[in-house]
Every structure is written in C-alpha cells, then in structure tokens.
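Side project, low priority. Logging it here so it doesn't get lost.
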Amino acid sequence: MITPLKPACATERWPTKPELVEMLERSVSEWNRWRAQHPEIEHIDLCGVSLRGRNLTSANLSFVELKAADLRGACLSKANLYLADLEEANLSGTEFSGAHTFCCKFLPPKIRLQLISALIESWEYVALL
C-alpha cells in the first residue's frame, strides 16, 4: 500500500479527497497549478469519485488513483494519465483523444484500440500533406 507524503511544512495541510475533487471540477488550470507546485506528491487517491460529464481537458492526472471512479461522458482529451489507475472505472462515453495514456493502468482494450486507431488516422493525415 502506498502512503501519501506528508506536507513539508507543519503548518501546510494537503487537501482532502472532497477538496481535491472540488478543485478539479472548478478549474483544470487550478488543479494543474497545484500539481506543479507539489511535484513531490506521487500518489493521489480519487478512488470512487464521480467526475461524470466533467471537462478534464489537459488535466494532469498522472499518478492519480481513479479506481471505480465514475468518468462516464467525461472529456479527458489531452489529459496526462501517466501511471493513472483506472481499474473498474466507468469509462462509458469518455473522450480520450490526444490523451497521454502511456503506462496507464487498466485501460480497457476497447479504449486502447480507439486511441491507436485515432493515432494511425492522424499519421495518415500528416502523410497526405
């Protein structure tokens, strides 16, 4: 089991899971800024949260545990999902175009196939230019 890191300063407090979800829902820019300010955090537990229908375009979700999360209809275009854990997440209708999914855990084969097909299509388009 991975233990989250403690804040470097005794007066600093990490956001709770509901606060993290609220931040992500409020603004991907704010979320990404917070992630950039805290590169030492290698594990963020968002297991079981609902981000249904949310626009998470370009969100840095690397190292985020999203086990059993509800991501139905969410837009993860251009999101960074490096080592994100999507085990048992509901991904129905989730948009992954341009998402960075290298080493993403438990990405269903159907989604992998869609991403590979989109990549091949973009290569074919570039080759035609």
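Brief comment: The first helix runs from residue 17 to 26.
Revisit when time allows.
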